[in-house]
Amino acid sequence: MNRFFLPTIFASFLVLTSCKEEKKQDQTQTETKESQTETAWQKPDKDAKTYAELSIRKGDDWKPEKFGGGEFMNVDSLQLPEGHSDHAYYIRYEGPGWENSQVGFRFYLDWRNAIDIWGKKEDTIVLPYVGQENYEDYHHDSGWGQDILKAGKSVGLGGYGRYMNDSVAHFRNVGNTIASIENSENKSSVFIDYDDWVTGEDSIDLDATFSIYPEGRFSKIDLKPSAEIEGLTTGIVKFEDIPLTEKKSEDGEWGYIATYGTQTLVNDEDQLGMAIFYKTSEVEKIQEGPHDHLVIFKPTKSTVSYYILAAWEQEKNGLASEEEFVQSLDEHLNTLQENGKLN
């Protein structure tokens, strides 16, 4: 009896010890995972002048379903999962966002590739707190402001695609898309790398960079195609009864297109000004598309650059009229003529 009793006790001890070790190992792995999650991202300093972020559902296998609760976690980079499309609610407010004290933008990180505008009533960093509790709340007025632009089928303000067959081809057929963000003292940036973007009979890679600086209502956008294609384009969403304004610098090296009027989601009286500044040597033509006022670039393998600008009347210390908006655009155009850049 004792001969069998001692080995049984010993065996039980081994099982218990093994279970404790496994439990301890699991607990350590969990703590490590949670530690990585907690230290992977920190909210920006309260005195930060610029900010960019990319935020995905935490602890959740990706599924193309609408938002059903749960927490988000910020990441430095993200490879889009296969099958990702619009309104999947996997990414907080549908893509990366970037801002300074005056303005903010967000990018639809899916086939639409449009850029939307954050109308800001506060001159502080707000994006870490947007869309956390209720996915749809940023579409409605709040203390900090709201999402204000209805992009629809357009490229929004400064999104991009390829103009062909009398319409803009967006990014429905891409082999792989990787997005990443970077914050530094003097600027914040979003990087989008596309592999195998197929339009018509052509396939290219495209690198896009969005940068924002401590001062100004603008963001700089750089596009670097791997091969020459006709029709690479950006633009501004069109609204009925909102005319397009065009102007070039005195030396003819820079130009802008702009719109101003009741073109927001807020109400029928709310005023918004939008503009794109471009280098004339890089542009083939300005063209009306079905949904956009388009700036179409010349075929090139070199980087093309442009600036987008948004001025909302409810912005703190903002531009109060169309006259002030146009005056601001002309000042920016003079700066570009003198310095070749805004930043």
What is the chain-wise order of helices and strands?
Answer: HEEEEEEEEEEEEEEEEEEEEEH
Beta-strand segment tally:
21
Segments where pLDDT lies below 50 for 5+ residues? 1-40
User: Helicity level, as a percent range?
Assistant: 10-25%
Please state the overall shape, judged from the principal axes of the Cα atoms.
globular
Count of structural domains: 1
Average predicted confidence as pLDDT = 86
Number of helices: 2
Widest sheet: strand ordering: 4-11-12-13-14-21-18-17-16
Task: Tell me what the structure shows.
With 343 residues, this protein is an alpha+beta fold. The chain has a single domain (50-339), classed as Beta-galactosidase, Chain A, domain 5 (Distorted Sandwich), CATH 2.70.98. It has helices spanning 2-39, 322-339; strands at 50-53, 55-57, 72-74, 77-79, 97-100, 104-107, 115-120, 145-147, 157-164, 167-169, 174-183, 188-199, 202-212, 218-225, 232-237, 245-248, 254-261, 272-279, 283-288, 292-297, 304-312. The strands form 4 sheets. A 9-stranded antiparallel β-sheet has the order 4-11-12-13-14-21-18-17-16, covered by helices on one side. A hairpin with a 3-residue loop joins β5 and β6 (104-107).
